[in-house]
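Problem: given the chain below (331 residues), write out its structure.
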Amino acid sequence: MLLAGVDIGTLTCRLLIAEVTADGCLGERRSERRILRLGEGIDRTGTLSAAAVARVIVTLQEWRAVVDAAHVKGETVAATSAVRQARNRDEFVVRVKEEAGFSVEVISGEEEARRTLLGIRAGLPPGVTRLLGLDIGGGSTEFIVDEPGRPPVVRSIELGAVRLTERIFHHDPPTPAEIAQARELVRVSAEAVRPVLGSLEGTTLLGTAGSITTLAAMAQQLRSYQPARIHNYRLGLDTIHRLEEDLLGRSNAQRQGMPGLEPGREAVIAAGALILRGVMELLGYGDCLVSDYGLREGLLIDLAQRVGHARQGERGARDGRATDEKGGGGK
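Solution.
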């Protein structure tokens, strides 16, 4: 099936149009991502700003035309941390429907983690079976323990790169006191999650989403984003430490133009690196396997599964009616 999915994130919005096979493989037709900062200021105000909403709606109007031109068999649009926290979330959902023609599903942190896992699984390299998925977003971070034969363990915390930056980093570059405060917040948040995850012995840490993929691009000093170079790249803790120290020592302006750093991510990438390093050190991982697959891909796989189940139900209902009609003829 040719399907379209849109991930409306706290920092970035992503579009994916792809063929989804019965076994969950994706054949990309078109993908886009734009840093639109929908969640700017939400940690302080509790609402989506008019300017941020306007930016997102303009982009969604453009993507509406793209999706229509592709003649997809189905579409799905999900909003995450910023929208689910916002007091004006209902107004946002209504405006998107009226002005861009998309029906937005506001998903919980746990549902975000579940669909992210679907995307991660679709891109796993051979030999990786037991994993801890880590999705560092703009407003939240998801932890997903997945191993064969057991239901996944998922936990979401409302701490992401945008939220950490806005809550603590009030100087540019951040002061030593702010950095220490941020490290402590990450430590406390990760400590709270740790007991829920259970034993992590033998797991592979697999990281997804913008902060982690950007750090992988920076580690390789890529001049442009190259998914094939990012996907399944192993990001060592020592490299993350070096990148984090470099980023924290620079102002936002000084970060601009650093190889691998996507324009628009300058203000929040240091917080993303700090979260990744803090989680890895606390949980005892020496490296992180990077996945370019995540929530956006998981949205399409989830939609394909739902469409497939619906079709099976329709076939079952038709077969049942046919059986009833045959049986009724003999009465």
